[in-house]
Amino acid sequence: MEMKKRISLELRNRTPAEVAELVVDNCRSSDGEIEGLTDEFKELEFLSMVNVGLTSLAKLPTLPKLRKLELSDNNILGSLETLAEKCANLTYLNLSGNKIKELSTLEALQNLKNLKSLDLFNCEITTLEDYRESIFELLPQVTYLDGFDAEDNEAPDSEADDDDDDEDGEEGAGQLGDYEEEEEDEEGSEGGEVGLSYLMKEDIQEADVRGEKRKRDAEDEGEDDDEDDD
């Protein structure tokens, strides 16, 4: 699907100004350029364009509120100065799996003063000697590179925490459902036991009645024998 059409579908009867998050992963861009994204998306805070065949960011519109940008698995070589010009408030940038080779390509990111997390995993630049030290020196505002800080401490993943909360909620719901099912099973089993006890009680009562009847019959026969003897 073409990027322009995909963006139109993702609007879902909203105006561009009402969209805070936009994901157009795995669609197709013509000539490696961004299409269908305009300055009207002024409230956009999260944009994901993973694996869409981008080679250039030249047509990226001005997105003043954009904080998180996913551009992994494209063919971007450079022209990163556009990011500083159009998305000045970026705090997270994922460029993993692109064609970035030289440190000089990243110099343009120095103007992203709020950039805290940068991902270059699987880019050729990661093979350079002293790669991590060089990036932290070049971009001192960056705290996390490829998910780790300069001391190799892993970046906190707020999304993972959210997922854990969701999973906990689902598990809690499941546990509640299981508990309700167990209660129903217990009630059912109790009902079965009551029914069984009731039937057993009836059988015992019938047996007692039969026993009493046989006893009376025997006594009657004994009285008849005594009368005969007389």
From TrEMBL:
Coiled coil: none annotated. InterPro entries: AN32, Leu-rich_rpt, LRR_dom_sf, U2A'_phosphoprotein32A_C. Residues 149-230 are annotated as: Disordered. GO terms for molecular function: histone binding; phosphatase inhibitor activity. Keywords: Chaperone, Chromatin regulator, Cytoplasm, Leucine-rich repeat, Nucleus, Repeat. It holds the Pfam family LRR_9. The keyword DNA-binding does not apply. Residues 128-146 form the U2A'/phosphoprotein 32 family A C-terminal domain. Histone chaperone that specifically mediates the genome-wide removal of histone H2A.Z/H2AZ1 from the nucleosome: removes H2A.Z/H2AZ1 from its normal sites of deposition, especially from enhancer and insulator regions. Not involved in deposition of H2A.Z/H2AZ1 in the nucleosome. May stabilize the evicted H2A.Z/H2AZ1-H2B dimer, thus shifting the equilibrium towards dissociation and the off-chromatin state. Inhibits activity of protein phosphatase 2A (PP2A). Does not inhibit protein phosphatase 1. May play a role in cerebellar development and synaptogenesis. Multifunctional protein that is involved in the regulation of many processes. This is Acidic leucine-rich nuclear phosphoprotein 32 family member. It comes from Sinocyclocheilus anshuiensis.
